[in-house]
Design goal:
Radius of gyration: 20 Å
Shape: globular
CATH superfamily of the largest domain: ATPase, nucleotide binding domain
Bound molecules: zinc ion
Number of helices: 11
Largest sheet: 5 strands, mixed
Oligomer: single chain
Number of strands: 13
Strand content: 15-25%
CATH topology of the largest domain: Nucleotidyltransferase, domain 5
Strand order of the largest sheet: 3-2-1-4-8
CATH class of the largest domain: Alpha Beta
CATH architecture of the largest domain: 2-Layer Sandwich
Helix content: 25-40%
């Protein structure tokens, strides 16, 4: 990068199943402009790239800038991304992305250098570079929402794996005889400790006729039972809700304990919608993680909640696009 480009902001884009977000991000992680729009309901990759283009241009326009003013473009996307050739191999919630050479398509569209990576990996990078506000070399980031994702910083580098799929923590097996996971396997961490697992566990117990106020809160519609509703019921003293949260926290803790054993991080950062349940979920999860982690006796580990919220992939994409930090891309 030239001196001018080093000082120039970067354009970042986060492609999700329902929304596409774009931001213009300054050198120190300042979000200078934002735009958001719906993801197109289409399996055509060109329609998707058109939508990305439109939302990116909105963000640029609100900052009064053009693409040529951007040092580079960083893109975050759910799924498995081969970061060597910039191909999105598979993205579970974006039908248009299937063996799509997205980097090449966006370079052609934007005429700027483009880098892309998995959203949870970039969320880890964002929290590490801009959220943590202190220097650590070993960090495990886990996001628990409908599913479970994560990213690993090991020895001051982002763990990318052989084909960009490193850090897919949600699909480690926790219970070989466990419930089915959307990935097609059984007993994955995501099938036991995610928001979806929490909701399914609740519905199953309600359908067995266990007493609870959750059914009333959902207006009798089991499709409306989600982590937020269960959390509200638990705050009102509902014992089924409390038990379900406690069991979900246990499984979150078991998975965290495994990650602590493997990566020996100094910091574990927990993000994602489920953390909004608060201490009722986080305290037992942390206790179980520490109990089950063999290495905790040798090392202090800080377990904290994420600071950047939904913007962490956009900020991670900014760090990735700049390429001036110590990751391994
Ligand atoms: Zn799985």
């Amino acid at each position: 990068m030239t001196k001018y480009e080093e000082e120039a902001p970067v354009l970042t884009i986060d492609i999700g199943g329902t929304k596409i977000a774009a931001a213009v991000i300054g050198r120190g992680g300042e979000v200078l402009a934002r735009a958001r729009g719906d993801s197109p309901d289409s399996s055509d990759e060109v329609v998707l790239v058109d939508a990305i283009d439109r939302i990116a241009l909105q963000a640029l326009a609100s900052f009064g800038a053009q693409l040529r003013d951007m040092a580079a473009v960083g893109v975050s996307c759910a799924g498995i991304i081969n970061n060597r050739d910039g191909v999105v191999v598979h993205s579970p919630n974006v039908a248009a992305l299937r063996r799509t050479p997205l980097r090449e398509m966006l370079v052609e569209r934007f005429g700027r250098p483009v880098k892309l990576a998995n959203d949870a990996t970039l969320a880890a990078l964002g929290e590490w570079q801009f959220g943590l506000r202190k220097a650590v070399q070993d960090l495990v980031y886990v996001t628990v929402s409908t599913g479970i994702g994560g990213g690993i910083i090991a020895g001051g580098r982002v763990l990318e794996g052989a084909c960009g799929a490193g850090g897919e923590v949600g699909h480690m097996t926790i219970d070989v005889n466990g419930p089915p996971c959307p990935c097609g396997r059984n007993g994955c961490w995501e099938a036991l400790g995610s928001g979806r697992a929490l909701a399914e566990r609740t519905v199953s117990r309600l359908e067995d006729g266990e007493p609870s106020i959750i059914g009333d809160l959902a207006g009798g519609d089991m499709d409306k039972v989600d982590a937020q509703l269960v959390s509200i019921a638990a705050q009102q003293g509902d014992s089924l809700a409390k038990e379900v949260i406690d069991l979900t926290a246990f499984y979150i803790g078991v998975g965290l304990g495994n990650l602590i054993n493997i990566f020996n991080p100094s910091v574990v950062v927990l993000g994602g919608g489920l953390t909004k349940i608060g201490p009722m979920l986080l305290e037992p999860a942390e206790r179980v993680a520490r109990e089950r982690a063999y290495v905790t006796s040798a090392c202090d580990i800080e377990i904290m909640t994420a600071r950047l919220g939904d913007e962490s992939p956009l900020l991670g994409a900014a760090a990735l696009a700049r390429g001036d930090i110590l990751y391994s891309w």
